Amino acid sequence: MHVGVDADNVLHDRRGIGRYARALLQRWLQNPPSQLRVSLLVPHLFPRLVARDLAQRIGVESVDAYRRSDATRIGLDVLWYPWSGMTWFAPITSVATVHDVWPFASPAHDPRIRHHEQTPFYATAARAAAIITDSYFSKSEIIRYLHVPDEKISVVHLGVDVPAAQTDRGPLLDGAARYVLFVGEAEERKDLQTLTRALARLDDPLRTTTGLVIVGKAAPSQRRIGGVRHGNPPVLHFETRDSVNTIVTGEIRDDLLGQLYAGAAALVFPSTYEGFGLPVLEAMARGVPVVASNAASIPEVGGDAALYFPAGDEGALAAALQLVLSDTKLAAHLSAAGRARAAQMSWDRCAQETLAQLRAAALRGVTR
Fold it and tell me: Are the CB atoms for 134 and 99 separated by under 8 Å?
């Protein structure tokens, strides 16, 4: 089977979606199953010029890269769009991964922005032979907003690599005795405000010694706070903002993110809407206790291994944090339960199940 992949964002996407696409491509390319060929399709005029960068970013020796316009001439059996929608098309059996439908659950007020955000989803609903999504929650949302038939949508949970041993060294701290970690883009649905307000409500001995590290694409109005001095281990310098010791890092490399997970006292995931919630699983894989909202797909991902609070309830979150940060037995229980949960959800499994869906769609395309 010859699989084409929309690879435009492989080099630049630092979100969970980017880690998902690269993780699956790495497995298909490093040890390809029998009779599998993968070709990456990019908008570049000279694909060979970016092939080396693509291979390095994915973590393989080499890749086959082609222009999108070559899709019809290289003998593809199926074309996979991993980026939550189809923004270009080829007359080939196509499968798209739709991670969530946030642009419909919370549509932009500006009609031009709304049209821009929603169009790839409408195109997917109309053109894709099959849709893969991350959770049963997202499947129900796709049916609700895009009116796609149930049988056209398959759920393949995302995965994570569980380290055989803890190899990352946690950072040294300047201005805090411990820190909680937030990983996510600065969007309203991530509900960072509830987290910062909850931290400000901790008992003073805990509040004044606990830091908050915010990782992810910052809002244009959000300035960097504190700092990270790179090294092994890195050093975190906290600044006080609204009575909370804080660092805002912006987007960072995966290796530094691994070090920040390794040293965290807890991951807090207060989001009000998620198609999956990959940071929950990434933290669990490293034995980091997880405190998360009970919204959307998050309990589906975390199972019984997280401590949940009602989404948007800063008092409940403060109480949960007080418990996790002061009760060593509870923290140890969450750590062990998280590792066990993460072990059930590997990238290997995700890659195999996704490939099975692509194969099934390609076969249906041939037999029509």
Answer: yes
